[in-house]
Batch of 2 targets.
Target 1
Amino acid sequence: MSEQRVVRPTPISGFPEWTPQVRAVEQRWLDHIRAGFESFGFASVETPSVESLDVLMAKGETSQEVYTLHRLQSDAKDDSDARLGLHFDLTVPFARYVAQHFNELTFPFKRYQTQRVWRGERPQEGRFREFTQCDIDVINVDSVPLHFDAELPRIVHQVLTGLDLPAWTLNVNNRKVLQGFYEGLGVKDPVAVIRAVDKLHKIGDEGVRGILLGDGLTGEQADACLALARIRGADAAERVAALGVTSPLLTEGLDELTFVLDELADLPEGSVVADLSIARGLDYYTGTVYEASFDDDPGYGSICAGGRYENLAGQFIRRRLPGVGISIGLTRIFAKLVAEGRIEEGRACPTDVMVVVPGAERRADALRTGALLRERGFNTEVFHSTAKVGKQIQYAAKKGIPFVWFPPFEDGGEHEVKDMGSGEQASADPATWQGAAG
C-alpha cells in the first residue's frame, strides 16, 4: 500500500478566511447591512459568479483584472467555457440582470446585492483577489430622480454608523463639474484629465501635473485643474466660481452637487463633504460620484465608492436605463479592523444549549429533549457520543456554549440545566425553560 501524499496547507495570498469566532462577527455585520438596505425598500438579488467576457468587458478597462474560467480536464473540442469569467464587481452583472429581466421588474428598481467578487490584482494591504461587496443601486427608465443621489449616502451613513467603525468621511463630487471645468479651460480630452486627477491621492500634485503636461495641457491649464482638485468643503461652489472658469455643464454639475449636499445637511457635520479631487476613473460615471475613506488612514483605500451612470445597462438592451449606485467594501473594512484587533470576537459556535447524553440507553431521551428545545427556538446540539459527563462538559466549555442540559439520568428523574457562566445548576422543564431569563 503506497503512502498517502500529504499536501501542506498554506494560505493563498489575497483570499482571506476567518476563524468561526471572527466569521460570527462578519455574519452579524452582513445581517446589519442587509437590514439597513431593506429599511429603505431595497430588494435583494443575486447574480451568478460567472458572466460572459462580453458582459464583463462592457465596463471598459478591466481585462487585466478578470479571472477567466476553464476546466482542468476540458475537452479540446469544447470551447463553451472559453468566454466566461468571474465577476470583478457587482454593477456590471446588475446592469445585465436588469436588461435581461426588464419586463419582470418594477421601476425605479431598487436593489441590494451582497456577494463575493474576484480581481486579478497584486494583493496588498486593503486589496484582495477575493472579497465581499455590498452594493445598492437604483435603475430607472429614461431618468433617475436626483434625490436618489442623496438617499444612497444617507443609507451608507446609517449602515456604517451602526457598525461602530473608526472615524470616516464620505466625499462627494460630480463628474459634470470636472468635465465642464476642463471644457471651460479649453482642454481637448476632459476624460483623460479625469483619469489623471483620479491618481492624485496616489502620486500627488506633481505626479498629476506631469501627466497633464505630457497629455498636452499648458502649465496654466494644469495648475487650474489642480486648483479645482484642492477645493473641499461646504463652500465648494463659491470657490469654483472664484477660479473664473465657466461652462453650461459646469453650472449643471455644481447645481446637482449643491442639491445633494443640501439634502444631507441634517447629517452630523463632516459626515458627507464635497471634495473636488474625487474623480472615479472609470469611464461610465457621468454625474455624482462618491468615495469614503478612514480619516486616520486615507491611504488605506476607499471603503465605500460609487456614482451615477447613464447608459451602462444600455450596453445590453435598446432602452435608456440610467442608474446610481454605491458599494460598501465589506472585506476591506473588516480585514483592517481584524488586523488591528478592533473586532471583539464572537462565540466559536451558535449553540445555545448542549444536551448531555447520560448513556447509550438514554440517548433517545436526549434526542427528544434536544428536539423540544430546538422547536422552542434554542440552537441545540446533542452530544455526539456517550463519553464521560465531565468530558462532555469540557467540550461545551471549549466551544463557549452558555448552557448544558442534563436530561434525567434515570426513570422519574428531573431535567437540570447548568449556566456555564455562573456555574449555577438547577431543575428545569424543557417545555417551559426561558434560557438566560428563566
Target 2
Amino acid sequence: MATRARVRAPELVGAGGWLNTGGRELTLGDLRGKIVLLDFWTFCCINCLHVLDELRELEEKHRDTLVIVGVHSPKFVHEAEHQAVVDAVERYDVRHPVLDDPELVTWKQYAVRAWPRWWWWIPRAMWWRSTPVRGMRTPSPRWWTSWRPSTPPRARCAGGRAVCAAGVGAGGAAVPGKAIRLPSGGYLVADSGHHSLAELAADGETLVRRIGSGERGFADGPADRARFSEPQGLALLPDGGIVVADTVNHALRRYDPATGEVTTLAGTGRQWWQNSPTSGPGPEVDLSSPWDVAWFEDRVWIAMAGTHQLWSYDPESGTVAAAAGTTNEGLVDGPAAEAWFAQPSGLAAAGDRLWVADSETSAVRYVSRETDGSYTVRTAVGTGLFDFGHRDGEAGQALLQHPLGVTALPDGSVAIADTYNHALRRFDPVTGEVTTLATDLREPSGALVVDGDIAVVESARHRLTRLRLPEEALAVAATAHRTQRPATEVAPGRSSWT
C-alpha cells in the first residue's frame, strides 16, 4: 500500500512581524498538536477577501480544533507597507493571527505561486498539504470529516482562541468606501467598517443619521433595523432612491430616503459560481462582490468584482444580467461579451461612456455603445495584471497602482482614485494625457465633484477630504514596477501535493 509523502513544515518567518497575537511571535512549536490552516493572502485580491469571509464561519464552527494563521504576501508595492497590512486586517475584521511577510520569505518556503492558497498541518499524521482555493465555498479536504471527530484532547486549542489574542482586528473604525452627494447638499457614505450607510451634513463631518443597525447581516426593513455587510458603491436613481452595492452580502440593495426603508433589488446572499444563472429576476440571481454602481443607459450598471465582469439591473423589469466580461481575469478589449476585466471596482457615467476602474490591471477602461446598439470595451490607461507604478504622461505609457474609483469631471476629463499610490490622478480623453492632481492621500477609494471642488474618500483615514482642483498638474517622480515571482526549486520525484 502506498504511503502518503510527508513534507517538513518550514518555520513561519516575516519581516513585518505578527498581528493579532498580543505582541507575541508565533512559532511552529506553539502550534504543535493542533490542526492548522495557513491562509496565504494579499488584501488586493478579491478571491482572498472571499476566503476571509469563509474563514469566519470555519473558525467559529471548529473553534475547539482548528487554528487559522494568515500569511500576508503582497502583490503591489503598497501592500508591502506594514501599516497598510495593519489597516487591512482592521478593515476586513480579521481576528486570527496574521504574519506580515513583505519579502515573501514564507511564501517561497511553502512554494506558493498564486493567491489565495491554503496549507494544512495535520498533527497526528505530521504532514502539511497544499490546497488551492478560490473563495467559492471551497470544500474541506476529504480527510477532515473522518479525522476530526477522533481528535485527541491534546490537539484541542485550549480556551478556543487562546493563541489568537484580539489585537488589531477589532473592526471598530469607520472605513468609508464610496460616497455620493445628496439633493439636500449633504453626503451619503458607504461606511463599510460599520456595515451601514452614514448620512453627513454639508460640512462632510456631522452625522445626520445612520442607515443600518451597524451589525453585519442581511436584513431589509426600517433604517434602524436593516443590515448590510461591508457596503461599497452608491448611486442616486432618477426616482430619488439610492442603490447600494452590498458587497459581502453579494446583493444590490435600495434605500428610500423618503421612507427610510431598505429593500433588496437583486442577490440571494449567496455568491455566484460557475454554471449559476447570469440573468433573471433580481432576487433569484446570485451576485459576486458587487463593488460599485452607476446609472448609465437607463439601467444600474454594477462593477461585479468577484466575477471580473460588469452586470446591469433594469428597474422596470426588476431583472439583472451580465453585460460585459467573460469571467476570465485579465485585460482584453473588444465586444462587451468577449472582453476581460480584472476586479472592476469603480464606475462613473459621463455622456456616452461608462468609465471603469479596473483595479487588478491598474487600468482605466470604458464601455460605449456602437451604432448597432452593441457595447464595446476599450482601455484608456493600463497594460496588464502585473504592470503598475506612478508615471504621468501619454496614456499608453502612464502607470497607476490598483485604482478603486473614477469620477467624471465637468471638463470631460476623468479623476482617478489611484488607491495604492495614495494619489488623485486625471485622464484627459482629448489630449490622451495622465497627470497627478494630488498626493499624500491615504488609500483614496472614490471621489465626487462638489461646487467646483472635489471631495475624496480617504478610506484609510476614515474621512472625506475636500480639495480644490489645481489649475496645474503636480510634478511627481515616475516609478514603474512589474510583479515577478522567482522560480521555486523542487527535488526530482513524484509530488504528493494536490
